[in-house]
Design a protein that fits this description.
The chain is an alpha+beta fold and 528 residues long.
């Protein structure tokens, strides 16, 4: 196939327009095109009077060889082979590998091990998507939290109740394998080529379930409400895992894909002397604006012709501390994302349609080990808990979220009309963010907001709403691993994903899951 890049199409363009452009770029007639598939589509909105789509297309065409030989255009080349190469080998582990956690990292570690015929046993402390959806809806409606089955814990992991944004900054050939498996499992085809792919929580639940069924169909097992609470060692080799229900599973290979919220399990790892280290991360608030304001700020008059717009803003304070927006959810909702009693945390999500009235994103301040207040490897986790407890109390100790208007926070006065109605459930209460955050964080936010308002018109408008606390943007802990992917001090244990400090986001966690599955196979001499 031939790859044609930089094909520009007007936003009103359609399939016919694309085919004509393709034929023109290749100097052939449309009839000479046998087949084609879109490899990449991105919206270029840098110039508001010239917003257009840019395409990269792979095409099968008559006289392909001749066209490539005569070609002088840098935007035309042979299509590279990007297919994922599965490892192959004879030697099978004596005992079935165990995967702890069924978030993106555990899901893809389990799927790859199953596709290699290694029949993994996946253990997930939370419930399957159906029971989880019920538990989460109950929490969002009543504030009644299930500490084992919630927005952080359960089938699909933290990302299931999310916007399902699949953007990642890692450049790894396994990324495409992740997207292909998701499409196989029912995700919309366009995630394969959209520059900013997203699934939406409504579709993501089905995708996760289908991946579970595929693992089972390949001889694997996925157990829910199966929390790992202990380990058995043979010297410094793993020999078995213990479960909360008293069960024991013997194994020589364990993937620890715990996520960033498995605080009781981190305390277990610390007690078992796992090599753990502090890791910088970020905390802050969720900020909400009318989605219409963002669409107009990003697309101008063309806004009504385009899907809900997103944004990404960064700022460095005079003291050198980073403030940035994160996990922006166009047409989305601020959600209660707690997993512990008495500790309130928020996050964001949206449905595939992204048709909610508000835009929201995390507005985060970078925090470093020196801010954690002690050298203890779990000090960052305790710092998170401290802010979550303050947020819980400030809201009234029933998962009512503390909120503040930007006008009040910046002391720039209140808005004449309030257009932004917050979306957090079950309830909200006006508070001062100074009652929750340490001064270095409120100072950084107060410095950043007006600066961001100059980059995105209206970002610091007085009726924009802040909701506290966004504390789970990434993990404050790293479970140190060596070149073979194993824990520094325990053979056969493979820390993976966000909780282990090796990923951030759905796709990079899934990629890390694939990587540790490969490491297990390599341990038994398998090769590409
Ligand atoms: C509300 C929300 C929205 C988000 N939106 C996005 C987004 O749009 N795009 C994006 O890229 N990222 C998003 N993220 C982040 C993304 O979800 C995470 O980066 C990703 O899920 C990390 O994957 P993981 O597999 O490493 O960990 P997790 O997804 O956290 O999964 C870990 C799993 O391990 C289980 N577990 C923990 N301890 C044990 C134990 N002892 N025994 C058994 N099981 C255990 C947990 O129950 C959990 O299911 C969002 C996160 C949240 C909370």
């Amino acid at each position: 196939m031939i790859r044609v890049s930089e094909l520009k199409l007007p936003i009103e363009g359609n399939q016919k327009t694309l085919e004509k452009k393709l034929a023109k770029a290749l100097r052939v007639s449309v009839e000479d095109i046998k087949s084609y598939r879109i490899f990449k589509r991105s919206l270029d909105a840098r110039k508001k009077d010239n917003i257009h789509y840019a395409y990269v297309v792979d095409v099968e065409v008559k006289n392909e060889k001749k066209i490539l030989e005569k070609n002088k255009d840098k935007n035309i080349s042979k299509t590279p082979d990007l297919d994922y190469k599965m490892l192959k080998g004879e030697v099978m582990p004596e005992k079935r590998p165990v995967v702890v956690g069924f978030g993106p990292a555990g899901m893809f570690a389990g799927l790859m091990l199953a596709e290699m015929g290694l029949k993994p046993i996946v253990l997930e402390r939370g419930g399957d998507v159906e029971s989880r959806k019920e538990a989460v809806e109950t929490f969002w409606n009543t504030g009644k939290l299930d500490v084992e089955n919630n927005v952080q814990f359960g089938e699909g992991g933290a990302g299931t109740f999310s916007d399902g944004k699949l953007t990642t900054r890692i450049k790894d050939p396994r990324c495409r394998k992740v997207l292909e498996e998701m499409v196989d499992a029912g995700a919309p085809e366009e995630i394969l080529y959209d520059a900013k792919p997203h699934i939406g929580t409504d579709l993501l639940r089905g995708v996760v379930k289908n991946i579970r069924e595929k693992i089972k169909a390949l001889g694997g097992e996925v157990r829910f409400f199966a929390k790992v609470t202990g380990f058995e060692w043979k010297g410094d080799n793993i020999a078995a895992v213990f479960l909360a229900d008293g069960g024991k599973i013997e194994t020589d290979d364990v993937v620890l894909a715990l996520g960033h919220s498995a605080r009781d399990t981190f305390e277990l790892l610390h007690a078992e002397n796992f090599a753990l280290e502090q890791k910088p991360f970020a905390m802050g608030v969720r900020i909400e604006h009318p989605q219409k304001m963002v669409d107009e700020a990003q697309y101008g008059e063309a806004a009504h012709k385009l899907p809900a717009a997103d944004y990404r803003l960064t700022y460095t304070t005079e003291k050198g501390r980073g403030v940035y927006t994160f996990c922006m959810c166009p047409g989305g909702y601020v959600v209660a994302a707690a997993s512990e009693e008495g500790r309130l945390a928020v996050n964001g999500m949206s449905e595939h349609a992204r048709d909610g009235r508000n835009a929201n994103s995390a507005l985060l301040v970078q925090v470093y080990p020196e801010d954690f207040g002690s050298e203890h490897p779990l000090a960052g986790m305790y710092f998170q808990r401290e802010l979550e407890e303050k947020s819980f109390v400030a809201g009234g100790s029933d998962f009512t979220a503390p909120v503040e208007r930007v006008g009040s926070f910046l002391k720039t006065g209140s808005a004449e009309t309030i257009e932004v109605e917050g979306t957090y459930r079950p309830a909200k209460k006006e508070c001062s963010m100074d009652d929750i955050f340490p001064a270095f964080m409120t100072e950084a936010l107060r410095e950043a907001l007006p600066a961001m308002g100059r980059k995105l018109k209206g970002f610091d408008r007085p009726d924009a709403l802040l909701t506290a606390v966004e504390s789970r943007s990434s993990s404050p802990i790293r479970i140190v691993r060596d070149g073979a992917g194993m824990s520094l001090n325990y053979k056969g244990v493979y820390p993976a994903g966000e909780g282990a400090g090796y990923a951030g986001g759905i796709v990079s966690a899934a990629v890390d899951g694939i990587l540790v599955a490969e490491k297990i196979a390599e341990r038994y001499g398998w090769t590409k």
